[in-house]
Specification:
The chain is of the alpha+beta class. It has four domains: 2-226 and 305-392, Nucleotidyltransferase, domain 5 (2-Layer Sandwich); 228-304, ATPase, substrate binding domain, subdomain 4 (Actin, Chain A, domain 4), CATH 3.90.640; 394-520, Substrate Binding Domain Of DNAk, Chain A, domain 1 (Sandwich), CATH 2.60.34.10; 523-634. Helices cover 41% and strands 27% of the residues. It contains 17 helices and 29 strands. The strands form seven sheets. The protein has a seven-stranded mixed beta sheet with strand order 19-18-13-14-15-20-23, sandwiched between helices. Helix 5 (172-182) packs across helix 11. It is globular, with a radius of gyration of 30 Å. The structure holds adenosine monophosphate.
Length: 635
């Protein structure tokens, strides 16, 4: 059974597999190893990846991207609220959760971020299946190290909606570290710092690698709302101001903003190799072309606070790992945004001139590590890999609320996982028989500043004065950093437990509805594929007939030729004007044309066959061409 590794990125997604003792990154239908994390809904079909991204400017409201940033977030989450204003598609509040509203086939529909991610994951599964020619049912998915419990749950759910069993969730920098160590002989103990700056998130991790096989994460830190898109947005803000000053207009339409964002990204990328670049958009400001020269220095100035923020987190992670910068043997760069020269310069200076390790394909490193982990977990790897052991850490502290809304931490962040920790709590009131246990995630002292993961009750506590009852709170965190909490009354042994995933998010029915919906969509996709195939066959047939007629004008009368050419032109116009017909309608059209044109084509064929015979007997023939009916017979 093949298991794949998927790196679902904010900007791009990458899938890889371990085969023949090495990792193979699987290309998409266009031959690219990275697939844009885009899903689009049109009047007739759903598009995923390249095709979705390519049509974004004509279908802004129904092209969804960057949705990984919404995973596991509540609607009123600050990062999400900031993002909503920038995205051209509509996001609504559905019982406290964000849902994306789109129009598809003339109908309004809403999707959760998990469902959109599932569509991208499913495309990766399809790509892997067609590349490997086997069914793929299991996967290792990667997540930013700083993803909390809700976000990990969300990605796991997305995997199952996509029809995959997610056998492990691993942290992106850990995965990249595995890719880094893959073909290197690392002797002794090496400390590495993985600086991972992608399109939407920033993660930094410190790991110790022992003898090439023990990967021990020492600490993680990050910012889930900081990445390449934020740099693009700084350039967008600069251009908006420039347009306001130069033309006196405010650009507000989502389509124009998207255009500007895309131009800003291109400019940003150009500034990686050039010192100056022009941000340009044709027919933009009141129909005028817009040009704005941006120097690398200006770009660096616009983003300087964001770049600095990443360095602050590097400092934090080092102190969490109880290391000094000279304890780090290698600094490994991962993620597309680490190509930015200023970032490299700042990091080199921070590490006192240390040479930075840039992996060969920094955008593929995470999927590569995930494919290795998938092979290890399924035992389909060589002996060297079998020795490899990953020890990850919990990204955020977990605890319960105690008196006056205080956060009582049960498991501190950066504790190695899997783990189990028990803490004792007691009742706050005299003769209290029920205790409500609220589980939180976060670093702040007051629970109101942290994220509520779930609530459950422990009943039948013997009525004793406050402070006497002894209740054990047990937190168990599995290898995916997913939490189960239980509470046990020591005097009676009575206990209650919850796996946060069951109560935090969606009911079983809601999950099933999503899975069924995704299945329906896939059936629609298959139907659409076969509809397009029939349309293409019809179009090819008409072109073939047209060519046959024009190459055999002498076989028909002038009137017949004009009639057939006219018929072909009309039929091609009909296809152009009816791009959205059902498969049956194209089939009907095909049968109709086959019948209508058969006598003309027979006539041509009759002449051709006659000529072929006479040429055969005179044995000095030239190339005769083939009639369309013969082409179809050959097929
Ligand atoms: P990732 O999530 O790792 O695929 O990274 C995607 C981010 O990298 C996007 O924001 C890209 O704009 C950014 N990126 C890719 N190539 C470059 C480049 N040459 N210079 C600057 N940023 C880049």
């Amino acid at each position: 059974m093949v298991t794949i590794g998927i790196d679902l990125g904010t900007t791009n997604t990458c899938v890889a597999v371990w085969r023949n003792n090495s990792v193979e990154v699987i290309p998409n239908e266009a031959g690219n190893r990275l697939t844009p994390s885009y899903v689009a809904f049109t009047k007739t079909e759903r598009l995923i990846g390249e095709s979705a991204k390519n049509q974004v400017s004509n279908n802004t409201a129904n092209t969804i991207f960057g949705v990984k940033r919404f995973l596991g977030r509540q609607f009123d989450d600050i990062v999400l609220q900031k993002d909503i204003k920038r995205y051209p598609f509509k996001i609504i509040n559905c019982n406290g959760k964000p849902k994306i509203v789109i129009k598809h086939k003339g109908n309004k529909r809403t999707y959760s971020p998990e469902e959109i991610c599932a569509m991208i994951i499913y495309r990766m599964k399809e790509m892997a299946e067609s590349y490997l020619s086997v069914k793929v049912e299991k996967a290792v998915l990667t997540v930013p190290a700083y993803f909390g419990d809700a976000q990990r749950q969300a990605i796991k759910l997305a995997g199952s909606i996509a029809g995959l069993e997610v056998i492990r969730i691993i942290n992106e920098p850990t995965s990249a570290a595995v890719a880094y160590g893959l073909n290197r002989r690392l002797t002794g103990k090496r400390n590495i710092l993985v600086y991972d700056l992608g399109g939407g998130t920033f993660n930094v991790s410190v790991l110790s690698i022992g003898n090439s096989c023990l990967y021990e994460v020492r600490a993680v830190a990050g910012n889930l709302g900081l990445g390449g898109e934020d740099f693009d947005n700084r350039l967008v803000a600069h251009s908006l101001e420039d347009i306001r000053k130069r033309y006196g207009i405010d650009i507000e339409s989502p389509k124009n903003l998207l255009c500007l964002k895309s131009a800003a990204e291109t400019t940003k990328r150009s500034l990686t190799s050039a010192r100056d670049a022009i941000l340009q958009i044709e027919s933009f400001c009141n129909g005028n072309d817009y040009y704005c020269r941006v120097s690398r220095t200006l770009f660096e100035k616009l983003c300087s606070d964001l770049f600095e923020d990443t360095l602050k987190l590097v400092g934090d992670v080092l102190s969490e790992a109880r290391m000094l910068k000279h304890n780090i043997h290698d600094v490994v760069l991962v993620g597309g945004s680490t190509r930015i020269p200023k970032i490299r310069k700042m990091l080199t200076e921070y590490f006192d001139g240390k040479h930075l390790m840039v992996l060969n394909n920094p955008d593929e490193a995470i999927a590569t590590g995930a494919a290795v982990q998938a092979a290890i977990l399924t035992g389909l790897c060589n002996d060297n890999l079998k020795r490899l052991l990953l020890i990850d850490v919990l990204p955020l502290s977990l605890g319960v609320e105690t008196a006056r809304g205080l956060m009582f931490k049960v498991v501190e962040r950066n504790t190695p996982i899997p783990c189990r920790q028990t803490k004792e709590i007691t009742t706050l009131e005299d003769f209290q028989t029920t205790m409500t246990i609220e589980v939180f995630e976060g670093e702040r002292t007051l629970t109101k500043d942290n994220r509520l993961l779930g609530v459950f009750e422990l009943n039948k506590i013997p009525p004793v004065p406050r402070g006497i009852a002894k209740i054990d709170i047990i937190f168990e965190i599995d290898s995916d950093s997913i939490l189960t909490v239980s509470a046990r009354d020591r005097s009676t042994g009575n206990s209650e437990s919850i796996t946060i995933k069951n109560m935090n998010k969606l009911s079983k029915d809601e999950v099933q509805t999503m899975i069924d919906d995704a299945k329906k969509f896939r059936e629609e996709d298959d139907e659409n594929k076969s509809r397009l195939e029939v349309r293409n066959q019809l179009e090819t047939y008409i072109y073939d007939v047209k060519t046959t007629v024009t190459e055999n004008l002498d076989k028909l009368s002038g009137e017949e030729c004009a009639h057939m050419i006219g018929e072909c032109v009309n039929a091609l116009t009909w296809i152009d004007e009816n791009p959205d017909c059902l498969r049956e309608e194209y089939e009907r059209k095909m049968s109709e044309l086959l019948i209508r044109w058969s006598s003309f084509l027979r006539k041509i064929r009759g002449h051709v066959v006659k000529r072929q015979r006479s040429e055969l007997y005179s044995s000095d023939g030239e190339d005769n061409g083939t009639t369309v009916e013969e082409i179809h017979e050959e097929k």
